[in-house]
Design a protein that fits this description.
globular, 54% strand, four-stranded antiparallel beta sheet, mainly beta, 116 residues
């Protein structure tokens, strides 16, 4: 059974940094893209960042460009999101996402709270 487990969320002051991680168990996803989404209270889930299998193709939402960095370690089946210069508007539950064929996998999410 495939499971995605996020970790690393927490409370940080505006301007601070956090790194969230997502480790996948159950099978390897070294040949598929992996991504991060987030959902703030009362809002729809939105795309944050995506990285292809070898890390050579990366996309970011405009709202996080220049502040967030996505990376992956295929040997560890893990994807990371380094978040710098955090703003209160970044407060949300952050979800890891993998799509393999017709199947989409999500983690349970990790809370990131940025205080002003």
């Amino acid at each position: 059974q495939v499971q995605l487990l996020e970790s690393g969320g927490g409370l940080v002051q505006a301007g601070g940094s956090l790194r969230v991680s997502c480790t996948i168990s159950g099978r390897a996803f070294s040949s598929t893209a992996m991504g991060w989404f987030r959902q703030a209270p009362g809002k729809e889930r939105e795309f944050v960042a995506r990285i292809n299998w070898n890390g050579l193709s990366i996309d970011y939402a405009d709202s996080v460009k220049g502040r967030f960095t996505i990376s992956r370690d295929n040997a560890k089946n893990t994807v990371y999101l380094q978040m710098n210069s955090l703003e209160p508007e970044d407060t949300a539950v952050y979800y890891c996402n993998v799509v393999s064929g017709l199947t989409e996998y999500w983690g349970q999410g990790t809370q990131v709270t940025v205080s002003s």
